[in-house]
Amino acid sequence: MSMKMMTTGFALAGVLALAACSDAPAAENEDAGAQEQGAEAGAASPEEGAEGEQPELPEADTSDIPEVVAEVNEEEISGEDFTVLYESQFQQMAMQSQMTGEEPDQDQLKDQTLESMIGNELLLQDAQEEGYEASQEEIDALIADAAETAGMGSSEEFIEAYEEQGMDGEQLTQDAENQVLINQVLAQLEVPEPSEEELREVYDEAVAAQEEAGGAEGAEGEDAAEMPSFEEAREDLESQAVDQARNEAALDHVEDLRSDAEIQTHL
């Protein structure tokens, strides 16, 4: 299984992404605050020089990546595929580090990346064992969605750009098929409907976070966007709660699959 799909918008089932989503509300607030602080401090930062130049991004260290990073039920995960995903994840973290000033922890990110790949492999194997099938229509739709997410006008344009990066268009189609199968597994997981109490709790936390951010900003906080009422925010709150529950169910399912799997890692 090639994990190049993780860099093309197909990583809907990535365990790394799911784990991050489980903490999304707090993380988004922290990231937003860090970005604002970085923007405010950026112009005056002595490290950027008189011209306001951004410091150089750190480079991903892939010198220690073996040819095979893991075996999942005797299915190999190659170091080449790992490197593609790891470099993509590292680039995102390196860009964030420019705003936060915190150097990416490469060892931790490598562990998280490998766990993501193992989780996806387990989900794909589960789909195959359950006999799920991906139709050409579903595959085409997923590629079209990825093209739209990437800001391209058509699937053909998206595939051409993929191939221009030295990658195989046929592999892209295979990756899309794999992701359709994984999505079918996730769609079968039972996700409870959020209760009124849970929605109220999420809303109250959001209100408290906004008030705290406004108080920290002082006078500038008066320009902050006004918090919508509970009823106005209800639809978004329900969507957020369902996504949270779906993420948790997916993580639990991966853990169940992992408990019965034979996994060897080599990082």
TrEMBL record:
Keyword terms, alphabetized? Isomerase, Signal
Extract one GO molecular function annotation from the record. Answer: isomerase activity
Residue ranges under compositional bias (Basic and acidic residues)?
A: 245-267
SUPFAM superfamilies in alphabetical order: Triger factor/SurA peptide-binding domain-like
Biased composition of type Low complexity is found at 34-47
Against Pfam families, the record matches this protein to: SurA_N_3 (PF13624)
Q: Which InterPro entries match?
A: PrsA_foldase (IPR050245), Trigger_fact/SurA_dom_sf (IPR027304)
The record's region (Disordered) falls at 24-68, 207-267
Leader sequence range is 1-26
Q: What's the name of the protein?
A: Peptidyl-prolyl cis-trans isomerase SurA
From which organism does this entry originate? Nesterenkonia aurantiaca
